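INTERNAL AUDIT FORM
Audit reference: QA-55
Scope: verify that the stored structure record matches its stored sequence.
Auditor: D.O.
Record contents follow.
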Amino acid sequence: MLVFFTYASNLFKPRSRSPLTPLPLTLFYDIPSKKPMSQSTSIPKKQLRVRDHGFDNYMEVEKKTRKVLKFQSLILSQPSHTLPISRFDSLARRLGLGFKENEAGAYLLKFPHVFEIYEHPVLRILYCRLTRKALLQIEQEKEALNAQIPDAVTRLRKLLMMSNTGRLRLEHIRIARKEFGLPDDFEYSLILNYPQFFRLFDAQETRNKYIEIVERDPKLAVCAVEKVREREYREKGFDAEDIRFSFIVNFPPGFKIGKYYRIAVWKWQRIPYWSPYEDVSGYDLRSLEAQKRIEKRAVATIHELLTLTVEKKITLERIAHFRMAMNLPKKLKDFLLQHQGIFYVSTRGNYGKLHTVFLREAYRKGELIEPNDLYLARRKLGELVLLSPRKAKVDRELVSYRRDREGNEIACARRDYMENDIEDFGVEGKIRQDGKGNDDLDSNMVSDFESRYTDGNEDFDETMAQKEDTCVTE
């Protein structure tokens, strides 16, 4: 009996499987996976980019103006500021603009408000020159650039103060000079003209030129976002604890915001961080709290970098030039997509090869909220590019109509003057009896008027002469 109970207990006892024996795969499919939903309050590291058509349309216009600027530089590089159409094809292929044969000249016809094509009076070939509107736009941009040189000095000082060592490579600033509103000769007009602020030297290790700030000014070590927080606190009366370290967040349309994501953003806004102008070399950055502060400091650094630009935008590739000097993360694109409520990354404007970063709070419906003179001057070129070619034809017709009308009035006034003059001399009856004499006299007087008019103006219009003949023969 005892043997029977022992055998029965061993029979019903569960057999232990060897740890080296794998479980059958059917068990993973039979057991339903009941993984609980993640309720983490941290912002996801990887997010899909949600498009904002306002910024993308802005970059489509920028794409056209970028080509137009290259053609403008080609024309202005010539001594006579004119260039034959036949040379545009070879020059466009040399610049890598992507034009096929005989496409560059056809491209210029799309922008009659910027480029004027005419026939050379001697060579009898087609030439191209800039229109009066385009020349006025270039002059206005130069004046705005020269007028804001004191502001450019301040922007360059703040840019150098954000670096760890107080110095930046000259080549990196030269590449981004247009975004920061610096003139082309900023090395001489800004750096060498203000030795009390900047110092230019060559590095012995790399033999690269560097710009170094002479002395840090505590008055300039104030971020633009701090001024915005103060204004929001005074005008809207937010809680001081909530707005102390917060940023203005405007998510793009169509961005899905869940409950836990909203909580994560609220907690991230309250995390303290070090200022971009503060030296963090003396802090212990190994703790988790320090890593969170460094991450938010990188957001503040890019935010301040965008506020120093003229149009509150800069390409991602040019931000990467300052990555080592400003302690920015390696994967900048993923880092910026993590904060789509503060920045917008656009791939339009250069066939997806460049990424342009916008500061969302500075724009509304694709336009800068607080525009400056340099921004407005550059936008005028975009307006000339977007003007329809039909409007240019209408403008030319109006000009020719005014010329015809003025010529008609001058000819009619000349005829009345001749008739009154003939009546005073008392030869009107004799001329009326001889019709041939009337034609000869009128033709002589008109020819004399035409000769004197054409001597003063070489661009004499043939339609004006036809109007004069009709008025005289009447």
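Auditor finding: record pair retrieved intact. The chain has four domains: 54-139, 149-218, 242-276+285-371, 389-473.
Action required: none
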